[in-house]
Amino acid sequence: MKEFTYVKAPDMAAALTALRRPGAQLVAGGTELLNWLKDGIEAPDHLVDITGLPLTAVDVGPHGRLRVGALARMSDLAAHPEVARERPVLAQSLLLAASPQLRNMATIGGNLQQRTRCPYFRADTPLPCNKRTPGAGCAALQADDTAQHAIFGWTQECAATHPSDLAVALAALDATILISGPGGERRVPADAFHLTPEEAEPRRHTVLAPDELITGVEVPARPSARLSHYLKVRQRASYEFAVVSAAVALELTAGDTIGSVRIALGGVAHRPWRLTAAEEALRGTELADTDALRAAVAISFADARPLPGNGYKVELAQRAAVRALRAAARPEAPDVHRAGANGGPR
Ligand SMILES: Cc1cc2nc3c(=O)[nH]c(=O)nc-3n(C[C@H](O)[C@H](O)[C@H](O)COP(=O)(O)OP(=O)(O)OC[C@H]3O[C@@H](n4cnc5c(N)ncnc54)[C@H](O)[C@@H]3O)c2cc1C
Ligand code: SF4
User: How far is CA 200 from CA 158, 211, 306, in A?
Assistant: First the structure.
């Protein structure tokens, strides 16, 4: 492992100054970054530890707006009583992620900045991967080994998906990512924070510049947040990333008719993938009308581009979206209780 310097930033100004040094990299909980150092995915010259910054709070404002500091632990946000009650999709996405030990260390900012789980990107012996080495090629596409890869927003350069469960829930809740940098503060919608290879060269994962840091996340108060749900389909019931996932936030009008809805999918692209056409088509649809739900969701898959190995995701993702819609309308039976095997609430 390459040698690097280490500094613990005492305040935000010091953190931003330290980040301006060439080869500098932030570290928060360290649950991702330390693996990258060991596997040669990253080789920073300087590590800037930001765990001393006052960014751990989870606050609910007077009008119900939720503000989460970037250094809040995943477990703290999931356990916050207001979050579990008013924004179940958020608590569920956190409790269905990683393990209790990881969630006790891992931060919200680090979760959003985690990298793809594409096995070629993660390989400890270098393989052709445009995300790691621009211009090297894409071993996954060359080998047609694409079962876990994207069906939307991919290119011949890269077809990786983004693994954050939290990001998908935040996109459904219309959240905003708060960023600080040398130019001051800026705000980015959660569904525009990650970049697909169609939007930027594969090496770039998010809109964050190297000298910027995430300070927090803001989630607006919306009636739809209460009727929300995160459904995660994975190959085993514990400690596993999503094959596909669906986050839904729903408002009902008279009876069980959909008034408005936001749907974001995980595991299908290198960012939470909004089903905007389906959201429009679902207005006025009865939740009990399965055929109408399926037909509306299918509209957003007209432009899906499955790879040879992952055609199954087209059907699976649509089913997940329809199931999540139904589950969102029944908050009394959240999937979060089924997270016991994953180290969920006991
Ligand atoms: C075995 C395993 C299983 C996992 N399973 C899941 C899962 O099912 N679902 C899921 O969503 N996640 C999963 N994760 C990912 C886990 O959630 C992340 O490792 C964790 O959230 C990263 O947070 P951290 O604070 O440890 O980040 P670090 O390791 O400290 O940093 C990770 C990256 O984020 C950057 N960073 C950290 N904080 C900031 C900030 N405030 N601003 C800008 N950049 C920042 C760092 O520079 C680094 O690039 C898993 C991880 C492991 C190791
Ligand atoms: S899909 Fe992307 S991350 Fe995976 S090998 Fe290809 S370039 Fe690398």
Answer: 11, 18, 20
